[in-house]
Input
Amino acid sequence: MGCEDLYSLVEAEPTSIREHSGEKLAIDASFWFERYYFAVVRDGFSLKERTANRECDISQALSLLSSLPDLLRHNITPLFIFDPIRRSRSSTADTAVPYLQDTPDLSEPENHTAFLQRPTEILLNFLDVPYCESPLYAEADASVYAREGRVDSVVSRDYDAVLYGSPHVVRKPYDSNWEKIELESILDNHQLNMRELLDVAILTGTDEVAGPYKENISEAVDLVKNTEDLGSLESEYENVLRGPSLSATDPAPTFDQLHKHYLEPPVIPYPARPNVSHPEPDYQKSGRFIHNYLSKKPSIVEQLLDPIKESI
Output
């Protein structure tokens, strides 16, 4: 969830996806597909339609197909970035169907829809939609894309992209409307530089560290702003930081390590990064794959692909 206490420092502006017409957006794929699963796929498709070969869960592929028109009709170019941890749990599905060997089966929980699955990758290739898998976190790679000007904004649910230095973040909290966050505005409004903002977040607590000022971020801001020597402050508080598990024996990262984590995260090397270009889908291959390998009737194929055709 990142540093949720940052909400009190953020003066977010309301926005919507359509307001980002013509932009390139680096999207946290797990968040995006999970959102469309609960908003569209779960109730819009029967259990039989959400599975292939009567055993493999293909909900994420349906989330992809259901969500693309909402982006493409506004001339938005998406880049989907996946977390590597989505491959860490093995599937219990036992199938001989090509391309479905790594998908969750029906006995597995619904939150597996956030996992990167082979059908989703194949459809992204056929639809010519750029995507990649981060070596660390999706928001880290997405933010580096934004910092380098290769995309206009990062789309996510959490605040992590702010700490990774994305200049612009389009955020969708649970049960709330879309909002736009500007990193420069946070720094200017609170008279902080990036190192100071990171120290505030560290003292408050992030996914990587438990800090002593959790739920007291205003005190952390005052502490950081009023210190004469930030290095000495970091050294003083290093002993009270804890690892994210809150275990007393769990080694905690240092301020320097956390600064590097957010400012220089491990990301996909430059030559291997996908080019963020507007899709030119191959509808024939996409339709054949949905029909032959995802076991969907021609009427379902048309239901899924026609809105994408119409939106481009």
